[in-house]
Amino acid sequence: MCGKCFDWPLVRKALYKWCSPFTIYLLSAGEPRKYDPTFKGPIHSRGCTDIACCVLFIVAILAYVAVGILAWSQGDPRKVIYPTDSRGQFCGHAGIPLVMCVAKCPDKFMTLVKARLIPSEFEYYKQFCKEGVTNQMSVPDILKGGLCPAMLTPSKSFTRRCFPALAGKDGSITVGNSSGFDDGTGTIREAKDLVDGVKNATVVMEARQVVMKVFEDYTHSWYWILLGLVIAMLTSLLFIVLLRFLAGIMVWVMIVMVILVIGYGIFHCYMEYAALKGAAGSNVTLQDLGFQTDITVYLQIRQTWLAFMIILAIVEVVIILILIFLRKRILIAIALIKEASRAIGHVMSSLFYPLFTFLLLAMVIAYWAVTAVFLSTSNEPVYKVFNETECMHSRMNCEPANFSTSAMKADCQDSECLFAFYGGETAYHKYLIGLQFYNVFLFFWCANFVTALGQMTLAGAFSSYYWAFVKPDDMPAFPVFAALGRSLRYHTGTLAFGSLILSIVQIIRVLLEYIDHKLKGAHNKCTRFLLCCLKCCFWCLEKFVKFLNRNAYIMVAIYGKNFCTSAKDAFFLLMRNMIRVAVLDKVTDFLLFLGKLLIVGIVGIFAFFFFSGRVKAFEDTAPHLHYYWVPILTVVVGSYLIAHGFFSVYAMCVDTLFLCFCEDLERNDGSAERPYLMSSTLHDILWEDKEPPESQGAEEEGDPPPSEAQI
After folding, report:
1. Nearest Cα to 706, choosing from 196, 28, 92?
2. What is the pLDDT of residues 222-236, one digit of tens each?
3. Contacts of 289 (CB under 8 A, 6+ apart)
4. Distances (CA, A) of 440 to 430, 443, 536
5. What is the three-state SS of 500-541?
6. Among residues 643, 473, 661, which one has the least CA distance to residue 554?
7. What are the pLDDT digits (tens) for 166-182?
């Protein structure tokens, strides 16, 4: 049968001439599936697979729960929210008196020497001092005891901490509306001297202002964002339903609409680029502008719109060229989408399964985030001895509760037991970094397990459709629930095995990124090059493992074998059908990707005109925002995730039908004894380009025709 599709003598000659021995082995490796009259598809009897990995996964989950309980018992998130004073007490927390903390930040310049001379100012000054400061105490005694700061600087509150109130005025830096201040010794210093001390804090404060504005924008536009996401969901669902009945028309509509939407994006960028011609400051380059926390600033320069226009033009040209070169295969891919639509029509509940996957992933992410916060705040306050004069106990650990009566205080009269940092010397604190690593690794493992469960469940549901002799009579009443039950009952170990391999690769990538971050200041080009190569190799490895896992889960859903056997069978099956994989399966994925882009583009354009106020009809309806790009980006990202969830069902259906088709060809021959279980439509789809036997060239002498098992 294969001789009807390819001139095998020429193919073999080309293989041996141009391909490596390893490639030839891959294309011919693996024994084709033999006919098994007892095989009934995914509903046949099966047993548990990869039991050892199942037990390992259960133990790991139990240990993960134990780590969470331990972290929750030791951690204290208040350490992240509230600052602490020199005694380790939380400031601004209910039940904690403001003894070492201040109720508000100082708002004027003042030195202790000058404040001590004026009773009213000294009363104001004392609120920034420790308890016990009286009017009878001299300035040297106060400073010697560390009871008050030597000076006060106008400050602003940020995360319950006081930072100098720096600002800009007429090109100079000011603090408290003044360009200079008295440092307490009678010397007038410039405000710019404070910049280095609060440089990082100033960046954080600017970022905080942006975050507050973004949060405020969300509070004013959340219902419109929710409406946009609902529209994206309804649009995605409408596309899926229309694909069910009008697959051919809808695919061409998607192709044309994507080209038009991107074309409009190019036109809009050009109009914005032309409108800014001659505008003040519009010719500033992105490099000169630098990083700005207000993103709308970038939209006021021409170079931004020029960059957008070039990027969209490149995307447009690439898509058009791909469509031109694959125009014949697109027709076959459309027919394959039609067949997938029929399968989804019999398994409509599969469209809502991504919601279950999303719920499980949300639980995994929430557990990881909460555990990480508690682990990072589970250190204990460490107190050390601080003193002005020489002391044998200096910087040693101490207990503030009984320090006044301790031997340390007796030996060093001027010493104090003050809070130093958060840490600990117990076994728990020594292995805290290991617990954090375990938390991250189990996060990857659980997230990949949930994703794998979704893939195997959908594969089991769609393969039950394919292998049903009479469709849909021979299908289970609830295919998705039946496939989910089989996956959890028999193949939890297989899911854990595949997700474990992927998690190991991902955690290695995380470690490489961490090392790269630490070596950013290094100038060793060889090390940087080696690290870059490793990152690239493991990125490719992760993509390959994901591809292999996906197809292995399909084979497990069909045959119920273990992970290694299924991965091997899926790999060699795809290698024996490499041409079909390249020109059919991947073309279909490309068309579905265009569908996602179309939904994102349509919803994104409407969101842009609504939130930016470009349409007069919506000026009074749209909320007034600091940054209109905040809800737009949220709607665009959310729309893509929603569209991806719906179209991923289609992609999984196509991949499952494709593998089942290849298995069906190797398992059966279309005779009455071994009939194909594929539909006649699917048979015509994947043999669309066959030619009649008499049109094929004669076989060369010495080259026997291939057997049916070579298909």
Report:
1. 28
2. 888 888 888 988 888
3. 297, 298, 301
4. 18, 5, 22
5. HHHHHHHHHHHHHHHHHHHCCCCCCHHHHHHHHHHHHHHHHH
6. 661
7. 555 555 555 555 666 55
